[in-house]
Task: structure prediction
Amino acid sequence: MKQNPKWILLCLTLGFALLDQASKWAAKLCLTPVHSLPVIPNVFHLSLAYNTGAAFSMLHNQPQLLTGFTSLLFLALLAYGLSRRQFYKGELPAMALILGGALGNLLDRIFLGHVTDFLDLIAIRYPIFNVADSFIFCGVILLAYTHLKGQPEAQTPEPPLAPSHESRQNP
Result:
């Protein structure tokens, strides 16, 4: 039975978005914005923060614009993915990671007015981020690698060509 890549893309996208939402729910349940929980002291902490902007708090004063733009981008990428007949190896999970991460953050923006962040790499002074951001980052890296490699997933070997009448030698 052949699997439909469109359904796989949709299921993976929803699965990644649900994982992100579950992680944010757990963070809000266990953390407070004032205190940081060291996982690896001075390297990696869990620190609850709310971001009304995009990456690095860009556009934090324009939440409607950001939500609208994110929605359009998500829908465009989803439409592109659903219109594909064939995916390169690794392309489908890469797109699902990007879409799932985008959907997870978009749900936060629509229903909460902000994105919940809690992963804090304090050793490198990186902005606090979340699981959705990680999905998007990994998806972009995988997608770039996939396209640089450029091998279709459903490659079928070409059947050998039958010799033509002209190429046969008469005895």
The helical segments are 5-30, 63-83, 91-112, 131-149. The longest helix spans residues 5-30. The chain has four helices and three strands.
